Each structure stands twice: as C-alpha cells, then as structure tokens.
Structures
1.
Amino acid sequence: MADRLRVRFAKVGKIRFTSHRDVARMWERALRRSGLPVARSQGFNPRPLVAFGLALPTGCESLAEYLDVTLATPVDRPTAVPPWGDSYPDLGTLGLALSEFLPEGIDVGALAMVGSDASSLQQEVTSCSWELEVLGVTAAELVRRVELLLDAPTVSVRRERKGRHFDDDLRPSVRSLALFEPPEGSTASGSSSGFLRAELATRPRGVRPRELVEVLGTDVVLARARRTQQWIDCDGARFEPLSADDLGRAVSAPHAMERAS
Amino acid sequence: MVSLWPSIEPLLDGVAKPARYIGGEQGATVPLHGDDQVAWLLIYPDTYEIGLPNQGLQILYELLNERPDALAERTYAPWIDMESAMRAAGVPLFSVENHLAAGDFDVMAFNLSAELVYTNVLNLIDLAGVPVRGADRTSSHPVVLAGGHCTFNPEPLADFVDAFVLGDGEEVVGEINDVLAGWLATEPELRERAALLEGLASVEGVYVPSLYRVDFEGQVLTGISPKTPAAPAQVVKRTISDLAEWPYPKNQLVPLTEVVHDRLNVEVFRGCTRGCRFCQAGMITRPVRERPAAQVRSMIRAGLERTGYDEVALTSLSTADFSSIEDTVRAVVGGECGDQQVSVSLPSLRVDAFTVATATQIAHARRTGLTFAPEGGTWRMRRVINKLITEEDLYSAVDAAFSNGWRRVKLYFLIGLPTERDEDVLGIAELARRCVEIGRRHHRGPTIVASVGGFVPKPQTPFQWFGQDTAAELRRKVNLLKDACRPVRGLSLRWHDPEATVVEGLASRGDRRMGAVIERVWRAGGTFQEWSECFDLSKWEAALEAEGLSLESVTYRDREPDEVLAWDHLSAGLHRDFLWSDWQDALAAVAVEDCRWTPCYDCGACTDAGIEHVVASNVPPAGGSQGTGQDLAVGDRVPVRFVTAAGVR
C-alpha cells in the first residue's frame, strides 16, 4: 500500500455550520487544486482515496480534525506536479498551500507522512475532548448538575432508531466533565455563560455534545461546542493521531507519535 | 448598516442545512458599502441549493461588483423552518455576504425562472419588512425589480414588482444602475418614487407595470396601454449580439455546501432555433449566439484550475448543436484544459447516434445516466410540436447507448399537447417498450425510465392560444400510461403532479387579476409551491373563487384569434403573425426546419433587432437529424432491423 499523508486541521467560525460531507467535498477540490497525486479507487466510479476520521456534528467547531490522503507516488520522489514546478514542496509549505486552497475557517495545523501500517482514523480514535459553552443556569447550579451526573451510576436517554425506542446509558462514555474559566475574549455569548470541558468516549456509544447538555437539564442550552482533541488509547497510554506541532515530520505510525501530556 | 449575524447565529443550531445561510462561497465578493454605490440585493426566490448555481444571477453579481458605482450581495428563500425562526426572533431577510437586512439595500432584484415561485416573491418582500404591493412603497423603500424568463408575462406579479427586465441582462443592468445612481444622488427628502419609475421605463427592455392601464369588459381583457408618454406602447426584450464580449461568470461561485449542478458551468451558446413549439426558452432567446470555441476552452481551463471541480457542464439549449462541440469535448477529455481527469456533462442532448458516441467519450470517468427528450409519443405528435426526432433517430441513439455500456436511459415526454389523441399518449409507452427491447440485446437488465410532464402553454410561443388540459384529463392520460407500462419489465414510468401543472398554467398565462389570487395563496401560507410537500391546490382554488376567477377562464379555454393577450404589450422579438402561422402549421402537423442553417422565416427576432445568428459552422452538425435535411414524410417508418427478433441487427 502506498504512502499516506495525514493532515490535522481546524474548522472554526461560520464554516462550522457546514456538514461533514461538505468538508469532504472542500478537501477533494482543494487536493485537486494542489496538484498532489492522490491515488484513486479502482472500478466503475473511481474516487480519490481520502479517509476522514470521526464525523464532527454540524454546528460544532474543532481544532483537531483529521484526514488521511493516499498518494499515488511517494512524496519524497520528485515528479512534475503543478503548481509546484518539477518537485514536491516540503510538508511545511504544503500545509500552508493547502490552507490557501481551503475556505476561510478551515486551516491545516499539522501534517505528516504515516506508514502503510497505520490503521484507520475512524477505528483508532477512542475519545474526544470538548469545550462547551452553555447558557441557562448559574455557575453554582451548573456545578451541582455536573456532580449529579458524575455521581449517577447510569444516565439513561431514550433514542429512536429505525422506528423503535432504545434506552441508552451515556454514563460510561462520559470520561470526565468539569467547569473551567475560559481565557479573556474567547467567549461567544458573554458573561452569562458557563464553560465545560468534557472527554467523551466513542465506545461503547459515541456521545454528542448536545446529548450531554440535554442530560444536564432541559433548561441548559448549548451555545457553542468545540472539539479540542481526538485521542487514541493504546496499552494504557493516550496519543493524538497527529499532535498540533507535528508539522512536516514524517512518522512511521501514529503509535510512534509524540506522547500526549 | 449593521450585520445581523449575531442574531442569525443562534437560530442556525435549530434549522436544517444551516450552511445555506452563512455565505462564504469561493468567488463571492463581500462588498464595502459606501454612499456612492447603488446597493443591489440579488434574490433567487427558492432555496439556496436550487438558486446558488443560477448562472444569470451570478453574471449580474459579477458585472455589478465590477462597477465602481454599484455593489451586489445575494440572498435566497430561507426554508420554512428558518423563516419561522427569523420571524419569531424579529430577524428580517438578510444577505449572505455581509448579513445585512434586505431593507438596507437600494434594490431588491428577483430572478424569475419558474412560475411556482411567485408566492415566495411576495413572502420575501414581506420578510424584508417592505410592503408587498408596489403602490404602498415610498421612496425610502428599496425598488423591487425582476428579470428572467417569466418576465415575458409578468402580469401576475405586476402589483408587487416595480419594474421587470426583458431579455439578456448584461447590458441593461448597467443602464438601470445609471438611472438608480442618478435618482439616489438627489437629497433623500426630494426623491420621488414616480420619477424613478419613469426613469426606469425610459430604459429599453424595462417594463414598469404601474405606468400602464389595463382594461376589461366584463371578464374579457380588452387592452393594456401606457398611462404616460414616459412608457413605451410596447416593451421589447434586450439581446446581446455577441456572447464573446461577455465571458461571465469569470469567478463562478463554489458553494461550501451541496447544491444542484455542483460543477463548473460554461455557457457555450445562447438561443436556440430548433423551433420546438412548446418551448418558451427556444422562442424568447433567439437568435443563436455561439461563444468562440477558443474562449470556451480558456474559460474551462481557468475555471477548473480556480475551482478544483472535476466536472464541467457545457450549458445551452441543445448543447450538441454547438458548432465546435466535438473539438471542445476532445480538448477537455484529452487534457488540453487542465491536468486532471475531468468529466463533461451535456445537460441537453440531441437524439442521434453521433451524440451518444460523444456522450460515451466524455463519460469515461463517471457514467450515470443518459436522457433523451422525444417529447411526443408519435411522429404525428412530434410534427405538431416541431420536435423532429424520427423513431429511427431514437432507436439508433438508444441502441448506441446500450451498446456503449449504458444500462439506464431516461426518456422525457409531454402529455396534454395540442391535437393530442389517446394513440399519441399510448405511443409513449410503445416507444419506451421498444427501447427496453433494444436494451435487452445488450444487457440482461436494461432500464428505461419514461418521465412524463404535463404541458403548460407559455406566453410568446405558438401554443400561447392553446387551452391547457384539465387536471382530470391529465390524470386520465397518466392512468392510460400506467396501464400500458405496467406489464413491461424494465420500464419505469414517472409523472409530474397534474395539479401542480394546472397551477403553473395559472401563473404562466394569467393577467393582472392573478395578482390578488397569488396574494391570497401567500397570505394563506402557500409558499414553496414548487415543492411537492408544500404544494396545495385547495389554496389556489379557494383564492380563485374569492376573486371570481376560474381555472376554466385562465387556463383551460382556447384563446380567440383576435383576443388581447395579457403580454401583447411585451415582445420577445417574435411577430404575433409569425406565432399565429406557426400555430396553424402545428394544428396541421406541418414541420419547419431550423433557420440557423436554412432560410429565414421572418419571426422577427433578428431582423427587428438588427442582429443575426452567430454560428461558427453554416452546416448542421454531424448526424444532421431533427428537421435539417431529412425526409420529414417518413419519420414514423421503423427500420426492420429493430422490429425483428433479438439477435438480428
């Protein structure tokens, strides 16, 4: 299997109202404009081999989105690719150039080559960290609700799938939940807001930020949600698929990547 | 002017497809507003995903933003969920670039591409906080303009729109801007709306309905005449003579979210003279003006490089008639217009084997479906409508398609055409059945989709005098087809809602009295009537009854030869006596050839405007079918090889 380019990018601002599929289309167009030799699937309707990680709910921001691009020829082998002349740019230049080809609010933060043994983003990611801005209750009340949730043995929500009702327990997927003070000037809605930091597991069942806020009470309103990290658990340690400072470093597999603090 | 974004943002978490409302498209201009510029809000009165790709709106958007004395932003109809959220929060209609209130603009300019959006036009004016009736507006309100194909009978919207623009917009939009800039240069308290309207009426191709008197005797329209010398007795459409001078859009908008026709679109020619009598677009956009092939190629190259699209559509009516179609397709597929694999789509194909070969060549990357439009089920019917596709044309095209690996072919037909008999309707099922048989020679499970629409007579066409089929009659014909198609494996029938067809007829040929009907339907909540989940015939019936009008009087009856038509004071360049004689030819099933390659019929489109066809080749394209040089007497003769048993070809 050919080389894969792993890209970490942010999705912030108005563009957060686009869907996961919309972002996939933006990337397909940006990659074509970049001239990178993206490998294509075989068969009747060949598609570029681009794999995205966990879908980000429409309306949420993220500082840690990922995609893997399979290349038809390795990046270190010079080849004529416009607009680069007769050789590839280094990965740092490539990252800046890709951001240019992407709409405002989608920015490449890091990119690196990953070996063919790296498994898929979708399968590997075990949890995500979120920052949530909520409205509707006082800070003291919010603290109380968070404690209630964390102390509860189960947190049941009723969901409809294919016309049938299911009772899901969200509690096992809430790994951590706490209030925090945001830095000055970074808030969307001003002084009445409360700010939560949560780590939500993808298994046994993924929890959306909106679902978490719903179980805090019907009077709590989610104003803004931002994914800050995606995590891979492996043998008791925790890694990011690509950390924010992995610009241009070639790594053989995500497991070899920098250990998160 | 203040951005409404802080009030819009909280609404977006609760609505479907919020990306419709954020703007941010590649190619968009976010203009700075100043006192020296006329501020235009260009409005497509349907959802974002339908409206964004509209090329006419994008052309005007660029032309206005290039001018130092103008700026343009865009908006679309918010879907029902967003509209109610906006109304509940007190947020008016807003632009997608700067998120400014529509009422902050000098002009609200609507694109009218389809009749069923008329109630949306009223709703959007209202959502902007502007009085819906022109008579109730003051000089502090935006002026409401409309352009697009529906303006060739704008009477149903005459009470709501201040001025309509007929024909190509490229030149006239600047002239209108000059009038507006002059008016806005006067002190606000000295501005008189009447003066502005008269100024607009002095621009060629601009129709200001409030300057005309409409006379009735009882229920009969007897005349429409100017109230003032400032208004011309007849308004004639604008026509640009050379498409090469207008290489727009130069920066086609690339949306952030999925829209229809999400690809690069390059217009290869404007106008069509195939002479299909049911087709309003082919009548009102004459003559044919081709874009030079070299310019087409350079627009494709630049567009692909800029957008990153992997598909380009060559747009026009009947694209395969473009003189340089073969060379253009070869250039794109052969990599002359960019380094990456690109597929080409031809939105409207002629029916012949040559065209299929071209389609196959261009579809190597992505083979979805082929659509042919024979329109009529029998050769007699097709002579009546002047869609001169012989059965041999169709069968050889279908054979070519299936033998080139296509597995699904869609055929488009109309029912409710003039002189139509049941045998013509059943002919649709028979044609489609034979196409399935042809497919079986090549594949195990070929599919033919027969899609059937109800015919709506359109203004400024030879069929403008024809009494439209009733909804009941259309339904009966659909049922005939259902019975005939059911036993045929591999044939699937689809049809358009006959009731929506009838309402489209109301708006298509209605006169000024239809305005009150549209207003009633809108006030009863009847928006998005072109969406089947929203369409509601009962609202229209109730409104007609309240206004003392009937479907019979507006749509179902044949017009009298000397009757005043609601659009007689507006001209698409076609002489009324040309249309009448073409109507008589239709009734006698007499066909006419394409005047692009044969002598002139003096329809008026070229001669009166002092322009002519701009066509690179003076001979018909390869294939030569559809009324150019073929023996029209033998069109229904089916070649033997297609009726014998499978295997003999």
2.
Amino acid sequence: MLLMKVLKNDKPGIWLLGILLVISIAVPILNLLVPESSPFHISTYTVTLLGKYLTYALLAVSADLVWGYLGILTLGHAAFFALGGYVMGMYLMRQIGERGVYGDPLLPDFMVFLSWQELPWFWQGFDQFWFAALMIMLVPGILAYVFGYLAFRSRVTGVYLSIITQALTYALMLAFFRNEMGFGGNNGLTDFKDILGFDLRADSTRIALFLASAVALAIGYVLSRIIVSSRLGLASVAIRDAESRSRFIGYRVENIKLWVFVFSAMMAGVAGALYVPQVGIINPGEFSPLNSIELIIWVAIGGRGTLYGAVIGALLVNYSKTYFTAALPEIWLYALGAMFILVTLYLPKGIVGLQLQSLRNLRIVRMVRKIRGAKV
Amino acid sequence: MSVSALTIPVKKTFSLLLFFFMSFFVLMSAAQQTLASEVSAEDSLADAWNALSKKNYTKKAKAIEVITQQNPSEARPALKAMLEGQLYYAKRGKALYFLKETDNSYVFTPLFDADSALEPIVQENRRGFRKVKVNNRLRSMIRQFLAVLQLTHEDANIRLSAVQELLKNPDADAAGLMENTVEKETDDRVVAAMRTLLAVIQLENGDEAAQQSAINTLADSLNTSAMNALMAYEAPTKALQNKAESAIQKINDKRDLYNKMETIFFGLSLGSVLALSAIGLAITFGVMGVINMAHGELMMIGAYTTYVIQLLMPDNIAMSILVAIPAAFIVSGLVGIAIERGVIRHLYGRPLETLLATFGVSLVLQQTVRSIFSPLNRSVETPEWMSGAWQINEVLALTWNRLYIIFFCLAVFAALIAVMKKTSLGLQVRAVSQNRTMARAMGVRSKWVDALTFGLGSGIAGLAGVALSLLTNVGPNLGQAYIIDSFMVVVFGGVGNLWGTLIAGMSLGVINKLLEPWAGAVLAKILVLIFIILFIQKRPKGLFPQRGRAAED
Amino acid sequence: MKAMQSLREFSRRDRVFDFLVQAEPPALDLSHNIILYLEGINKSFDGFKAINDLNLYIESGELRCIIGPNGAGKSTMMDIITGKTRPDTGQAWFGQRLNLLEMDEPEIAEAGIGRKFQKPTVFENLSVFQNLELAMSQDKRVWPLLMARLNGEQRDLIDEVLTTIGLNQLASDPAGKLSHGQKQWLEIGMLLMQKPALLLVDEPVAGMTHQEMDRTAELLTSLAGKHSVVVVEHDMDFVRSIARKVTVLHQGSVLAEGSMAEVQSDPRVVEVYLGE
C-alpha cells in the first residue's frame, strides 16, 4: 500500500524496481540452470561483478540523498561504505575459526602474526551474525551522528564541509593502515571462508549475495524515495537551496541534515557489508579520498537529485571502469578526468537531465519514453 | 633522502683532507730533517723502522713510540697504512712498502722517497711481501698518535674532531699532551672540547679540588663522554656526589632544551612546506573563492620541472635548483592559467562544481605525467651547498636543506605580500575579490585579473614543488599526498588570509612534530586532522576569520 | 548540619527536580500590549557602529513603518530580532516573557516572528504550493516531518493564502518561474502560513509596478490588527499610503517617531534626508 503510494508518481522508480526484479529472477536461472556451453549462460564471475555494481549503486543512492537533496557535497562517503565493509569483514574473519594459516581457534591470522595474545575487546561479539548485522548499521551511523552533530551544529557548510569530510576519510585511512588498530593494517581482512555457514566460493552463495544486493538496493531506493517525497524531503530541498531562509521559517536545519546524513551513512554501510563478501577483501584503500570523489562523479554523471540517476551513473561508470582498466588501462584515468570536467561543464543535470531535456525539446514524447524506459 | 647523495660529498672532502695532510707533513719533515743533528736519534729512528718488520709486538710498540716521538714525515702515512693493514715489508731486504690494490694487480710503493733505488713494484699477487701486523694495543697507540698529531693541525675543524676522537676514549697520556696545546689553542670550540677532555680525566684521577672543578667544567658541556664520566663517577664525599648529580641534572635539562629546539626546528621546516603548498591555495581558494583540487598536481608539475632541469644540466647541479625556481613558477603558472581559461572560468560562483571539475583536471594531469615520465618515482639530486648541517653545539645541528626551505618559504611569502600590497595587480586582485561587479565598473578587467591571479597561485604551487622535490621522491602521486594537508592549513588559518595561512602552516608543522615522539608519525597526523576537524567546528571561519558585515552572510 | 539540610531539601516530597520539569516554551505574553521590546541595543562591525543605543517598542496589532537612509541600521535591526546577529549589548524581548537573545533562528520563528527578506528568497525548485506547505505552522521536528501528510484543514489554509496573495493559478508551478512581484507576494504568503504574531517585512515593494504596489499596500493593511507588522521601506509614497506610525532610524538609533505628517515636519529628519 505504502509502496504504491510512494511510487505513484515515480515512473523511473517503477522501472528500476521492475528491472531489479527481472534480473533477480533471470540471473540465477541463467547462471545455475542454463548449461555453461550455452551462449545465454552467465558465469559466476559476471554474477559477482553484477552484485558488486549493485552495491555501488546502493552507495550512489545514499550519496545522492545527501548531495542531491540536502546539498551536502560529501567527499568522505566511501568511509561509511568501508566501515560497513570492515564490520562484515570482522564477522567473516571470525567465521574462519581454526581454518586459518596459523590454526588459532580464536585469533585471526594477522593477530597471531603480530603475536597478539587475546582478542581485542572491539572484536568481541562479531562471531554472531545478528551482532555484526546490527553493527553494520550502527558503526557508520554513530560515526555519521558524531561527525554530523559537530559539523552541522556549528554550521559548517559548502566547501568547508566537503573538505573536512575528505579529511575524515583520509584520517580513517591512515588509522586503518596502522597494525596497532587491530584491523589487519595494510593487508586488511581477507581469506574469508564462509558466511552463515555457506561456502563463499560456492555458486549458490554468490547468487544469494547477488540477490541480497538487489534486494538491498530496492529497499534502499524505496526508503530514500519515501524520504524525498515526504515533507522532510521538501524541507531538505529547501535547505539545499536556501539554508538560512529555512531557518527563518522554523526548520531545525542541523537536525534534518543530521538524520538524513545518518540514514545515508547506514545505507552506505549496508552497501559496504554486501560488497566485502563478494570481492573477498576489505583493506584501508577503500577509505582513500579518491574513492569518495569517484562516487560523487557516479552521481553527477547519472544525474544529481534523482536517485535513479545515481543508480544509472554507478552502473555506467563502473561498467566502463571494468572495461577500460582491462582493455586500455592507460586511458582510464584520462577518461575519468574528462568525465569530471565534461559533466560539470556541459551536463550539470547528468544523463537523466539530458533525457528530460530531449523529452521536452523533441516532443516525440512517447518514443523517447520508450527509449528511456528501456535504458532504465 | 637517499643515502648516496650524502656520502659522495663526504668521501670527496675526506680525500681532499688526506691530500692536505700529506703535503703538510712533507713540508714539516723537510724542516725537521735539517734541524735533526743528533746522529743517535737518527740511528734509533732507523732501528725503529726496522723493528716494524719484527714479529715481537713489544719491540714494535717500542718502535712506534720512538717513531711518534721523532715524528718524521713518513710517520703519519706509514702508521695510518699500518692501521689499515696496508703497510708491507719485502721479505728480502725488509724495506717497507705501501700496498695499493687495484682490480687485478697489487702495487707496492716504497715508504721512503729517498730509496730511489726501489721502484714501485707491480705484480699480480702479494708474493715476496709480508704485512706489518698489528694487535689491539698497537692499534690504540697508533690511533692516539694520529689524534694527537691532528691536535696541532692548522684547520680548527680537524683539531676539533681530533679532540672529539680522544674524548671517546679518554686517556691520561693524551691529557698530558693536551695541557700544552690548550694554552696555544685559539678556537673556542676546540678549547671547550679540550677542557672537557681534561675535566673528564681529572674527574677520574685528580684530587678532590680538581674533581670539584672538573664537575663544574663538565656541567657546562653537552658531550656524551662528559655525561658518561659523570654517570660513572664515584664521589669520595657526599658533597661531591650531590654536585655531580646536580651537574647531570643540568646537562639533562640543557639537552632536553636543545632537543626541544630541534623538534621545533623540524616542525618549522615541515610547517614551511605546508605553508608553501598552502599559500598558493590560499590565493585561489581564499581570494578567488575557487576550490582547486588540481593544486597538488601543480606542485607535482613544479617538482617534475626541477627534475627535467637537472636532466638538462647534469654537470651543474648546484645551479640547477636556482634555474628550476623561476622555471617551475612559469611552467606551473602557465598550466594554471590554462586550467582557469579552459575550465574554471565557466564555473565561477559554483564552488562545488569547480571542485569536481578541477579534480578531473588533477586526474588528467597525473595520468599525463605517468605517460611521459613513467609511473616510477624519480629523485632530484640535492646540490652540495644544501647538504650537511649547521652544527650549533654538540647536541643541536640544523640541516641546511631544512634551513633553506624555511628561508625559501619566508621569501616566497614576503614576495607575495609585496605583490599583493605594492603592485597594481595586487590591488586589482584585492578589488575583484572584494566586489567583482564594483571592480569591473571601475575599469578593472576582471577576467584578466582572474587568469593572472590563478596563474600566480599556481606558480607558487610550482615553487612548493621545487622545495618538495628536494625532500621527497618526485612521482605522479606527489600532489595528492599534500592536497588535503594544504586545505587543512588554509581552512585552519582562515580563508582569504595570507598571514593566517603562514601561521597555520607553521603551527600545524610544529604541532605535528611535537606529537610525533609521543604518538608516532601516522598517529600524529591523524590527531592533527582530528584536531582541525574539531577546530573548524568550533571556529568555522578559521584562526583569522575575515570580519565585518559582509563576512556574516 | 549543612549536609543534613541539603539532604532534607533533596528528599522533600513536594519538590520536582529540574531535569524532570518538561521544557515547555513559555507562551507569548502580551499582557502589556507591547509585542516587541528593543532596549539599549548596540552592535558594531569592526569598529563601525551599525546600531547605537537603539530603543524601539512595537505595540500588539500595530502596523509600523521604519524608514531611514542607507546604513541607518535597518537590516541589522531585523537581523537582531530574528536571531541572525547577536547584539554587543542590550535587551530584546518578544512580549513579556520571551528573551530573543537566548533563542536561535528556528526558535524565534516558531515563537511567532516571521520575516520577509529584502531580496526575495523563495525555494525556487519547489512549487508555489510546496513553498507554502513548508512554511506552514506545524511540528517541524524530523520524524513528524517524515510522517506528515497533508490533511484537509491544511489544504484549505494553503488555498486560502493562495487566494490572498493571488497565486491560485500558479500553485503547481516552480517558484523560480514567478515574476519578481509574485515572488514578493509568495514570501508574504509564506509569512502568513507561519501564523506569526509579528511580521517583519523588509522592502516589500522594491521592484514592483504601481499596480502591484497598491495590492501589496492593501494586503499589508489588511494584515494589521490580526498581526503586528513592521515594514522597512524606502519608497515614501508607499509608506505614506500605509503608515499609521513611522519611526525614522539614523546612524543606528531612533531619530524621530510619530505619524507621517509629524515626522516629515521634523527638522532633523529633513536634514538627514535632504542634507545640510
């Protein structure tokens, strides 16, 4: 009922959810049931790759929520993604148990290697999935709360905020590089064996993770949609466009920013948690400021402030990244750099905006709608 | 900094010194020989030389004593060679030779020039020659002798290092020698070192009065041996014991003080680098309101310019840095103007978009450099006039390169202030930054000013790159490492305030270095970042905010 | 002894601990018929005295015009009332009980002071209707906002205001598309949605045609009585057409106060406006 109401005026959203539903059914069938010799077979590698893209798309939606609707250009959003990933990594590390290289029943390999005697307090409890699942939301959420509370209350805005979010993720990266932090230092967490008792390398587990990512993206999208179509969403846009004006009509700007930011951070954390078991590793590199900025360009290319645009951008940029880094590694950074420049100069509304414009200009509305629908 | 860059000059100076020694002793011995009239002395000297080829170490020791007392011209090179195991004697005739090994041959040069009958002998092995062997006792005798010899050298630095050598292993005999020389000594540093040495010896051997004065002397010294002597000192009376303890305390306090000074110096030099990299940003960010994420890459371009100039003039490394300074300014400045004209001018008034677009520019620049120069790190050679250190006292030494960087930063800053305050460009820049429309109405060509301002900021980034190239390796990621720090400095100092940027840079550098011994380098950096994050939240406009009504909107 | 006493004090049964008392915003108290008190206010920026010992009282239900040359401190005064700027010294009270200097912008807005800015700032990407919906007096905390649904009563209120400001036809257009005058009205409409006790209106007719100006005058006069209205304006014709009581500000303090005729005949005012 609520879903219907939210999606009533959101055709792209309906398309998005529809497509997610279709691939959630098609991909497992094409992977598991269609024989490998068939041209329609999808390899497990591709499934994992698609699953990874979906987690990126979820991350992009979370970033679009704060950038597109609240006007907070966060250059540290990948930090929440990485934190969620680390929490999942800790759970997966604890699942290895005695199968590690050193065979210690309790301590992960890197701790044995650093000759630690006991499990640090902050690793307690992560052998329980429910606890880890809770932390996946709580850890990024709490960091976002503390950071946002300090930043928004003292009215740090605009580029200042961007720069300190970048400093935040940079500081976290430096911290996680340290062995003393107890998160595997340079190498991060890896060599995962299984999740909830299922072998991570099994095709069926991969499919399950892919499906979980699709479901998470769908839920994340719908929740974000609920927010942006509520009066809270209107207030967010108001804050984005004229912050001090919103204050004068009685909105607690800092609270609205804070809670949307926290929600977005939690979403990013979930995305990270789904990302880690699919790629099999989490290391401090995920905190690198470059990742956060790249994330922003996904949103910018797709179309800021449209949610589904963020999904399109994430999929498009990451697909071309996979393609370029394999085929023409030299070209990738040029291409990425050019994307940044061209999108900001000529496509301020992203690909989605381009289509909306052509929609108005060309007047062949039906045809374009068809094309757009097909692409979404 | 690479080790090889440091050791090469050291080796050179060492061989140079050796050459001076040689020629000096040749002259001295010529004078001595004419004076030496006592036949018996000459006889015993000859005997002594002969005794070196004996196997009996007691006799050898005796011989060395004789040789050192007479001190003929050959004494120093011969004993030095002996110490290094390169003094040989012919099995037949027992004449003494220096051995010089080359790749595949052994060259034996006779010790005495007078033995003209003996030509240098070149052969493929050491057949027919035997090494003059030394034991530990002889070695220390020879070292002592060499040190004492240097005590009378005309170069004060050599005398100083000789005394310091003796201080490492204080010896009553050496003290005897020094008592004579200290009176004639003119160099203050050498006198101080000699007095320390004497005091160390007196502390061990003197009576109570002498010990007391020795403690007084040592309390003023910063030398490690002085400290060790005081630590090992067993006082005969309680009063002396207390005195020694307070002397140790005094020395420790002083050392702490100098260590702190050194830390602050390190902090200032780090701060200079930060300030240098941030000043350019302060102009583009503060004065123009433009976020230039490619600022780090402009620094990288400056560093690569230095590298290329060194490649172009490999024979003149000393000059290359001086050439690189204007070159880097121009190259980075031009790239900056190109960025402004090509990208930024379309985005004025949209700071967040500018940020993204310039980030794209930074990626392109990085990849371009990777394509041209390869992704590997390059290193820029430090010119000789920048290596070494300014030894203020035994604890405190300020390395020249760090000192130069501090000076360089201050000079760039002063020049920039002068440009902003005294030139018409500066006036126009300030006018445009305060009120663009008004300035334009007054006839300021704001587009032209924008481009030049951006060029100026970028040029200064290039200068920062020159400084950086001397401190770290030059690589495509050079800029990225500094961009966040630079932003922190600008934000900390207060946007649009050049003085604020300088002070913020310096203080962040010092804070960082003060935290380092306590927390380690990485943690110190993290703490500084967290500090700034919290600081901005307390004072969103930085240390020195622009005040006034306009700033409140 | 003392400890015993404080213990007894602590355990008194009729006492309610401070932290248990619900923080209830004190209501607007107009028992003395004065809605705004500004007393002895000073504010300087970098040595420039923008406000200099300003004393101003606005009666409940009054329509007051404030005039003054550029730099007289009109905008700064508005900023102080709405909490944007803090004065260096002085007192600012809203009714008898609300100390404006202890409140921030949203609190002041919630308490019932609405402000229209000199430069119209409406939310350009939102529709006219949405602008009004946002401005509506309502629970503006995060969770209620997320759950809020427009009910019939609220819709009626918005429609009513739309009619008042004459933007009925344009309700679903983005506010960015409105003309300058329409934006001004929309802002006044947003003010009305807030149901403020006191309206601060900064240069409402700047850039308006005569027709629009007349309508605005009509609008503002009709508001007085229900609300207290403070209008800051340059346009003398406009002020004359609406003013009952005029205050002249000069160099940060009140130069003259009275009816338009009184003020215009005051020699000091003439000097300030016409020069030596």
